Queue: 4 jobs
Job 1
Amino acid sequence: MTQGWELSETYESTSGRVRWQRLGAATAPPVVLLHGTPFSSYVWRGIARAFAVDHRVYVWDMPGYGGSAKFEGQDVSLAAQGRVFRELLDHWELTEPLVAAHDFGGAVALRAHLLHGARYRRLALVDPVALAPWGSPFFRLVGENTSVFEQLPPNLHGALVREYITTASGPGLHPAVLERLATPWLGDEGQPAFYRQIAQAEQRFTDEIQERYPSLDLPVHICWGEDDTWIPVARAHELASLIPAATLTLIPGAGHLVQEDTPAELTAALRTFLTAAGNAG
């Protein structure tokens, strides 16, 4: 269930080495998938393979996440990730791909577009971090006390990470999936990286772009798990009201981690939007 998802390509970004992979035919229409926090491209594995039947799919682990570089002093903020995404689009020579972004990745895609000139043919946002205020009580507690949490014994840290990731799912995660999502945050490299990314997750990075959402001039579709306990479904309606002509799909039975909870329903919604007539290539 968790085998066969390794990113073999690398790119030396301004925030460290990025692991990435391309699936599908080189001549097919391009689709780029962005993960959120504290996840990795692994959450997109099934949907990426489904799109790769008739698309050229790009997946990547952001600096500080998954299989990409993690090191002391690393800038893994939303500001840095937005810049790195624009770098990658240039590296891949993609001028106007289809883009689907989850959670923190939604803010990354929005920043790259609104602040760094990245162009997309269509943009799908899945339970995105996009509106103030954000950050659960746990997230804020850890962010304000990272120096304390970094000192947790490895077994307690591991239990905390697994429990935290579990709460992103509505029906619950398969144990093997949970372990795969938790593993990058364990060990001498992973433990400090987990707290580093939380410490740098500042709301000001979405505050900088929130007032620009009404200026978005591309097709945008929002997908949201109705049972999302991390970001309430009310935010889906709020965000849709701010973006001109944005459309919205609410997905029953899904929590925040929609890719794991209802992959078939999410794949259907994304394919319907991203491959709309005249917009797939």
Note: The chain has a mean pLDDT of 94.
Job 2
Amino acid sequence: MTKAERTRETRVRILSAACEVIAEVGFEKIRMRMVAERAGVSTALLHYHFDTREKLFAEAMTHSFAQTGTELEKDAGSVPAAVILARILRALLPTDPELRQDWRLWQELWVRALRDETAQRLAVDLYDQLHDWVTGALRRGVDSGEFAPCDVDATSTLLLALCDGYGIRLMLADPRVGLDTAQASIWGTVARTLGVAPEFPAV
């Protein structure tokens, strides 16, 4: 392994550890030492890569986001647009332990963004990327004839808002909202616009 590869591997290990610790204790309680211990590196090495908690948090969010994007792009060229869109929507909800961790990070970002301009810019930038994922699936479906022509930007904004709303209820373990209910409601809301069956596709 080259020095550059070792450096990248160390950064990834640190960022993964940071995601875990921030999700567990929250940004306000996190200490760099806690992340270093979880990553199995010295505090000095951690500070070499990330000199402040704020920079570590921002890169941890971006790292977590990129991991989700990588999973969504697998075999994307060989499945119907409806399945791609359903996968994206499912990934935008806290449907498994890893995505619940991502959701905790998002909630930390939302709180910070209310008071910190840098966090606000990061949140808006990440939402832009989410918007691109959803509009990409919508445009693919429209172009292939799988979806009826629609305002893809407005539809994407609606889908993201629905995912945020239902996701919060799922994170709260609200007994009125289960995963199946959330997925069915989100899909059913846009199914008529897209000209597809109202049932959430098997993914």
Note: The mean pLDDT is 92.
Job 3
Amino acid sequence: MKNLKGVRVMLVDDEPHITQFLEFGLLNEGFDTRTAPDGMTAVNLALEFQPHVVILDVMMPGMDGWEVCRLLKKNLSNVAIIMLTAKDEVEDRVKGLTTGADDYVVKPFSFEELLARIGARLRNQFPALYGEVSFGPFRLDDRRKEIRYRDEVLELSPTEYELLKYLVINHGIVLSKSTILDQVWGYDFGGDENIVEVYIRFLREKLNDKEHRLIRTLRGAGYRVDLP
């Protein structure tokens, strides 16, 4: 991943030997890296540094990783959070993911695995860093604001583009209307959430998805893209 210049990674852990080890490895991979020894420092640093990825310990004095995760997701427009912790019980994993974490790595860990997980989060949440990215029959080119479906360029409005990109990148995940509104229209959108239904209908027409096999509706839950 040395060709991904300008990717910002923030390390949050109260154990200096871990942050030093990770910082050395990530700098060697070409990442712009910052470290924070506690939760409050991490929140303040993140607002200034605007990281693409945060490697976040859970058990820290003062503000723990759960609260840091919640605040980062609330205050940053787009950030990938990978929880790094010795807590490996299922309930801890569930808590991390429901708090907003995008991935969960248990200590002890391999640096190569962590690097692979960072790459996976970047491809999913920051496709523009890679140019074109493929997801099944879709090819996304965020720099050109263009999506191809089965090798045909879709004629999309800016909002349709952002909505389809968000659905495709998060394929296999059920996304509620409120989540889609926050991520596509923005947290300060004051309109009716039924606008999501309208734009989903637009996309289905352009994808010839008459039977809703590609963009599925899960009544009472939201929408999910299923890739063939």
Note: Residues 14 and 153 are 48 Å apart (CA to CA).
Job 4
Amino acid sequence: MRFRDVARVTAYAGDLVSQLGPSFTFQKRETRHPGLDGARGLAVLAMVVGHTLDALLAPAVRAHPWVQTYWTFRGITAPLFLLVSGWAVVAALGSRPTAARDTYGKRLRRALLLIFLGYLVHWPGWSAVRHMGWTEKMLTTVLTFDALQCIGFALLFGATLLALAPVRWGRTVVLVALAVALPLVSSTMWSLGEGLPGPLRQFIGSGGTSRFPFFPWASYFFAGALAAHLLNVLRPGWTQGLALVVLGGGLIWVMRGQEADWGPSSAWLVAYRVGQGLLVLGIVNLLPQRVSGTLAPLGRLSLWIYVLHLPIVYGWASYSGLSSRVGPTLGLLPALSIGVGLLLGCALVARIGSWIRDQARPWRTGSTTLQASVGSLGSRGG
């Protein structure tokens, strides 16, 4: 970079700081893992289309053998979503020893947002609450525990433990303990949870009252976090992709040699699904970026697509969703068309909301512009 280019960047930076105010800093924004957004986008695509087909497909169509085969593969969607969420949290910490403590406030706010949104999308409406009265049934309905709450509480507990753990070896010990111990103690926790209030039973998983109880579903989150921690020494892309394929494929091979247990609290099932998730994440890493890049925009908007599509498919409060208004009456092509249209519509709304948010926080876009300017001047300077 020539001297005059340095001077131009310095002058530009001074003008930018004066415009954005004293709160602006020149910290480099976190780079996104090339395969993360693609894998998350794939999971979101499968989730929205899967929920729509589940709500709208006629029974005769659902009974078709290849539809049942698709339903079998759908079992990896939610584990992949949690696995990638855990990976993203630890990958963002980087290699700085104090990163878990420095970013704890940010993680805490994110966890509380996920928990709030998770309960919000299951709000039954004031009329239903008044009808049920102050009963355990009302509390259980209002505090329905689902995937977002599972991720939120996993992030809350994980971020807290990582911030308190010793700097040198604490991150490894905490993540290994959580990833391994949670599936092993899930059956015991389900037994101990019997007789507790309904919301706590949903959190624990006792009696099958929740589809995504903390035990064992948080295991996928911490397994992804552990994989990110162990593989952070490898370059993202082909190097990490090959390692993930080997790790995921090896785990599947080992689990296939064990006695299968497809029970909802099974440690075998968790390990098997983790292997599948790592394999998918590895394959997405190995794909050309022009392929994974088509899914990446969906991955970056995954939270808001999730929040937007659930009320449309299943309803919210006193408003009926597609499952009630249309019901399981459609053939494959109409249901699939509605699912794809819903996905694109939710993505568009989420993108508009993201753009409005960026306009309200110009210091973030200013940071990106400055980095681009520096990069272009450097390339001209030779």
Note: DSSP finds 20 helices and no strands in the chain.
